[in-house]
Amino acid sequence: MKHPLTKSKFLFLLLALVSLALPYRAAAAPKQEFYQLKIYHLKDQQQEDRLDKFLKDAYLPALHRAGVAKVGVFKPAADQANPSAAPAEKLVYVFIPFKAADQVFKVEEKLKKDKTYATAGQEYLEAAFNNPVYQRIEVVLMQAFTGMPLFSAPKLNGTPADRIYELRSYEAASEKLHENKVAMFNNGEMEIFSRLGFNPVFYAQVKAGSKMPNLMYMTSFDNIASREEKWKAFGADPAWKKMVSAPEYANNFLRADIYLLHPTAYSEI
């Protein structure tokens, strides 16, 4: 004898199907990560050596204990036109990925209570006013694009000294044009980068920083020759040519700043 499908049974089945679908939706659409980029400005090699010691022996291990899995540390690559030229200013870039915006502040609170961190980082944390470890720090807070909500640590060949990490910053003339450039990335530009082997690390919208409105992204290469080869292929790519000539994406960035970086030996990204 067949039992009729009552209203209560129908609702039960509907709820069961919804509950099964929710984990799938969560796995298919992970939450967008937040990124903090710290840029240390240094005056000399002594400050650089002291900062390296602090980052390697104190800061990165403390971030791990506070729940941050991997941290990237980068320094400017030599000027390819004049490799022997010293940079005008010493810089160190520290890239920290967070699962959510509030984790940024929770981690800071955890560091304050970390006694191991206080001991290992004492020289940096207790530096005298007339003997600082750095000249100043810039901090940029970003949220990952929907098209790449999680950062990716690339698998590159060769030594860290040869690898190139390219950080780009795109400012726009208005908030509306900035949002248009973000949409351009989400609607196909990132796909072109991936298809051509740019090994993207992250794409993100700047939420707080000195240059606004702005987005930043990082790609990576085995060496400088590979980087030049990939960009040449990108410029000639039919999909990119079609996209960049589309009127709906006209004038959506005002200025691009390009930074070529090497990972430090202790960088985890």
Summarize the structure in words:
It is a single chain. It contains eight helices and eight strands; from the N terminus they run αβαββαααββαββααβ. By secondary structure, it is of the alpha+beta class. An eight-stranded antiparallel beta barrel has the order 1-3-2-8-5-7-6-4, surrounded by four helices. A hairpin with a 5-residue loop joins β6 (202-208) and β7.
Descriptive keywords:
8-stranded antiparallel β-barrel, globular, alpha+beta, 269 residues
Spell out the blueprint of helices and strands:
Blueprint: H1 7-28, E1 34-42, H2 45-65, E2 72-76, E3 90-98, H3 101-113, H4 115-120, H5 122-125, E4 136-144, E5 164-171, H6 175-195, E6 202-208, E7 214-221, H7 224-236, H8 238-244, E8 255-263
Antiparallel strand pairs: 1-3, 1-4, 2-3, 2-8, 4-6, 5-7, 5-8, 6-7
